[in-house]
Amino acid sequence: MGIGTGVLAGIVLAGGALVAVRLRIVDARSARSWESEWAGIEPLWSGRLRPGQGAGDD
Prior knowledge:
The radius of gyration is 23 Å and the shape is rod-shaped. The longest helix has 45 residues, at 2-46. It has one helix at residues 2-46. The protein is mainly α.
């Protein structure tokens, strides 16, 4: 009974570790995507000019 409990606990811990790793990967990918999208939207949203952009270059 103790071995079965140990095996079950090991499976649960391994599954939890896999889920945690996958969530980190998805979170990092989402953050990169958000950053690249925000880099294009932020200047328009805030009214700031992008580097190399002059007045009237919309």
